[in-house]
Automatic annotation (TrEMBL):
SUPFAM superfamilies tied to this protein: Bacterial luciferase-like
GO molecular function, one term: oxidoreductase activity, acting on paired donors, with incorporation or reduction of molecular oxygen
A family per Pfam: Bac_luciferase
UniProt xrefs under InterPro entries: F420-G6PD/mer, Luciferase-like_dom, Luciferase-like_sf
Biological source species: Caldiarchaeum subterraneum
Domain Luciferase-like as annotated: residue spans: 2-236
Coiled-coil positions: none
Gene3D superfamilies with a match to the protein in the record: Luciferase-like domain (3.20.20.30)
Protein name: LLM class flavin-dependent oxidoreductase
Keywords, sorted A to Z: Oxidoreductase
UniProt superkingdom: Archaea
């Protein structure tokens, strides 16, 4: 997933990334993102403003440290004097992926990062749209979109969908998220208010009615093993999109079976 430079200074992020890159033998990919507003503001009491500008500076500073080994950096939001990674930065390139949902942050990811991370709860339509945007840019550098995908597997298809609805409600209740991911439903203001209230109260009965099974099928891999495979196969057809499963209410051994089956069909 991601680490937020709004919570941890970019120098600290870069230093940790350098260590992990060396320990992993070059397999490490750094994911950075702003994080959810309520996590930063409400839970931690930290400012969540001018996010695009802050993330731009953060990515540049992190890259400086991981490549040229830093030096002085004086930005509007971040300052680092004589910052460097000791004894030396990684001997190989450390890919930096940027988590994004909004169009401006996605544009920044295409410009500055090596990849884009779409948060769990992104609809199939939104992933396809992002894939088309990437192809239209014809970037000269290798680039990847990673779609974090909620995954709920159960022999009882309905039970799998119901298990996901509270998690999806938490995502959809964030400002602008449902409007972006479920635009075709043309949801009214009353729906949003009821969703926020039910989410705060943890009212699963109301959430089950507000979030239809069809919505779940657009936002996640949920249902039987076959149904989850069908969802993942749609993502697999997007050649620059990779999938990272986010299991909800699913046993690890069942998840591994899905991964094995997926690997056999889409090596």
């Amino acid at each position: 997933s991601i680490v937020s430079p709004l919570i941890r200074h970019p120098v600290t992020v870069a230093t940790a990334a350098s260590s992990l890159a060396e320990l992993s033998g070059g397999r490490f990919v750094l994911g950075v993102g702003a994080g959810a507003r309520r996590w930063v503001e409400d839970y931690l009491g930290l400012p969540y403003s001018q996010v695009l500008s802050r993330m731009t500076e953060a990515v540049k500073l992190i890259r400086n440290l991981l490549t040229d080994n830093g030096g002085d950096f004086q930005g509007r939001w971040f300052r680092a004097m004589r910052a460097r990674i000791t004894p030396k930065p990684p001997s190989h390139h450390v890919p930096v992926y940027l988590g994004a949902v909004g169009e401006k942050m996605k544009k920044l990811a295409f410009q500055l990062a090596d990849g884009l991370i779409l948060s769990a709860g992104s609809s199939l339509g939104y992933v396809r749209q992002t894939h088309e945007e990437l192809l239209s840019l014809r970037l000269s550098k290798p680039y990847e979109v990673v779609a974090l995908t909620f995954t709920s597997i159960n022999r009882n298809s309905q039970a799998a969908k119901e298990a996901l609805k509270p998690e999806l409600a938490s995502i959809l209740s964030r400002p602008g998220r449902a409007e972006t991911m479920l635009a075709e439903y043309r949801l009214e203001a009353e729906w949003f208010e009821r969703l926020r209230t039910a989410t705060e109260r943890g009212d699963k009965a109301i959430l089950s009615k507000l979030i239809s099974d069809d919505m779940v099928d657009q936002l996640a891999a949920a249902g039987t093993m076959d149904e989850c495979m069908e969802y993942l196969s749609k993502l697999a057809k997007l050649r620059k999109v990779s999938t990272a499963l986010v299991p909800i209410g699913t046993e690890i051994k069942t998840l591994f079976k899905l991964m094995e089956r997926f690997g056999e069909n889409y090596p």
